[in-house]
Amino acid sequence: MQTTLRSSVTFQGIGLHSGAPARLVVHPAADNHGIWFKRSDILVGDNLIPARWDVVDRSPLCTRIVNGAGASVSTIEHLMAALAGCGIHNALIEIDGPEVPILDGSAVPFVRSFLQRGLRTQDARVRALEILMPVEVETDAGFARLSPGLGLTMAFHISFPDAAIGTQQKTLDLSNGAFVRELCDSRTFCRQADVDTMQAHGLALGGKPGENAVVFDGDRIASPGGLRHDDEPVRHKMLDALGDLALAGLPILGHYDGHRAGHAMTNTLLRKLFATPGAFRITECDAAQAARLPGAGVHRGEIPQVA
């Protein structure tokens, strides 16, 4: 069955790119509501934005959604991953600014608070997007692909010139709480050269190495405290991908492959999926299918101790 939160949960922090303070409240919502954002600071006009693939303003740096009136919310990927990874299907997210707070740079603060608050089972069955045929997008940098599968599985490959990152790859079955155990505490990361470029263009103003991001510089980790996992970068890329795939609007039954893929490429993949006749069908999940979804059976004891 679908789930929502038992009661509202509040988060406060600063935006990674804007550096601006933000207050965000995740409220329970009714059956079949889905995930919506509400800009509480916009008092005139349309301030509701659906967390949906077709309102994404594609960017390589973060995931930003924009409604027809121009109201937007950016850097939503970690929050969306936490909702999907905890199996929360319905929520209204109220925020008083244009960027979700980065918190510690991972999804674990969201996950911890959601599981501490607890989930409420609802009266409607979970529906899922079942992939029926492979769909792929490719650029000079890499590719992203969705193909048929029984649950949601993911394989990701990254390659960076910085020796401290290098080439990393990981494959994971995201059922039975694997997202909470394996991915949710992995933080956003970047190269020192990219930080310098972004800040010169007025971005990454809220980035604090070691506190909410991991910075790599050649063969060294330039952030105090080191890594939470030896392969934290590829784990974080998988976390981002789950958040971006959640914008399909329904859980996905299929396999995702990402090779040097990012936010824009995953959104382009969803756009191609929905534009390809016969590529998917919407399935009302039976108990066996629901048990293979990322949020099935998660509990607080699975949150990594490092976080």
Extract low-pLDDT stretches: none
* Secondary-structure arrangement, i.e. CATH architecture of the largest domain: 2-Layer Sandwich
What portion of the residues fall into strands of 2 or more residues? 25-35%
Our count of domains comes out at: 2
Give the radius of gyration: 18 Å
Summarize this entry quickly.
The chain contains 7 helices and 20 strands. It has helices at residues 77-85, 108-117, 178-183, 192-200, 232-245, 263-275, 287-290; strands at residues 3-5, 9-14, 21-28, 35-39, 48-50, 56-57, 64-66, 72-74, 91-95, 119-121, 127-131, 135-138, 143-147, 152-159, 167-173, 189-191, 214-217, 220-221, 252-259, 280-284. The chain is globular.
Structure explained in plain terms:
Its cofactor is Zn(2+). Belongs to the LpxC family. This protein has helices spanning 77-85, 108-117, 178-183, 192-200, 232-245, 263-275, 287-290, and strands at residues 3-5, 9-14, 21-28, 35-39, 48-50, 56-57, 64-66, 72-74, 91-95, 119-121, 127-131, 135-138, 143-147, 152-159, 167-173, 189-191, 214-217, 220-221, 252-259, 280-284. The chain is of the alpha+beta class. It has 2 domains: 3-121, 2-Layer Sandwich (Ribosomal Protein S5, domain 2), CATH 3.30.230.20; 127-299, lpxc deacetylase, domain 2 (lpxc deacetylase, domain 1, 2-Layer Sandwich). Strands 11, 12, 13, 14, 15, 19 and 20 form a 7-stranded mixed sheet that branches. The longest helix is centred in the C-terminal third of the chain and has 14 residues, at 232-245. It is globular, with a radius of gyration of 18 Å. The mean pLDDT is 93.
